[in-house]
Amino acid sequence: MAVTFDTLKPDARIFHELNNNPHWWKQFKEDSSLYIEVRKDNQVNVYFEGGSIARIHYCSKHKKLQVFTHHKYLGLPAPSKSSLYIECSDFIDSCLDDVLDRIKTHYSQKSSVDGVVPKEKWSEKYIQGTLIVQSRLYHLDSEFAYIDGETNNRMDLVKCSDGMITFVELKRMRDNRMLHETDATPEVVYQMNRYKQFIEKYSSQLLEYYQKLYDIKKSLELPVPESRPVCINPIPELLIFDSWEKNTKGRDEHRRRLREILLKEDVKFSIKSDF
């Protein structure tokens, strides 16, 4: 399957309609706990803690914006066994406060009996979403995905600093793809090398794509980095989140071996243990 980067259209009707700023759209934008991504198929997704809570597209048949969200967020039964999402553009204004309250109170990935789950149980999605809302000054995109022939490339975070686009892969320290019991090369090394080859092969197309995405986000008054993209970093970065709160001999050895392998394999990485 050929890789295409030209499906994203700055003049797509959805962006024109969103620039009219319907009330629900303004509320999504003004909520600091949410973040919004523009997708290459000219749709828009709204996220909370790494999970998509609303999908927005323009329906040419009905000539209107449509908003789809999970029936539980709306407090309604599922429309069918095969469909859990409801198109709610006609009534979302009247219930959006309740929808957001349900999401944040009942479906947060960090909620528990006491309101908190130990850091060691934080999901990758929760970590990703929290990193995004705390990095709005350089965050540009997330979940960048393209299939190149038989290769499926899906990078977690895209940042832009001083005009340079850098692709970032997020992993938890305890992810079993990070380290084998033997000294065999872990899966993450092959993954990072694959991403590097992809970026090198499509560097010019990626730059053009992210310039368009930047312009669209800016026109919608969404947070964007200060500088418009001007170049692509050929080296992807691996961001490792170390959520282990208790140190043990085994965990210290795990960290040591992982660092040793990544340095040996020339993988650019950083380790973060908190927000």
Task: Briefly summarize what is shown.
This is Sigma-70 region 2. The protein has one domain.
Number of strands: 11
Average the pLDDT over all residues and give the rounded result: 92
C-alpha end-to-end distance: 39 Å
Measured as a percent range, the helix fraction is 25-40%
* SSE pattern, N- to C-terminal: HHEEEEHEHHEEEHHEEHE
Count of domains: 1
CA-atom Rg in angstroms: 20 Å
Individual helix count: 8
The main sheet comes to:
6 strands, mixed
Categorize the overall geometry: globular
Low-confidence stretches: none
Q: Which structural class fits the helix and strand makeup?
A: alpha/beta
> DSSP strand (E) fraction?
25-35%
Protein name: Sigma-70 region 2
What is the fold's blueprint, element by element?
Elements: H1 13-18, H2 23-30, E1 34-38, E2 44-48, E3 51-59, E4 64-70, H3 71-74, E5 85-87, H4 92-106, H5 124-133, E6 139-148, E7 151-161, E8 164-172, H6 187-201, H7 203-219, E9 231-232, E10 237-241, H8 249-264, E11 269-272
Parallel strand pairs: 8-9, 8-10, 10-11
Antiparallel strand pairs: 1-2, 2-3, 3-4, 4-5, 6-7, 7-8
Protein name: Sigma-70 region 2
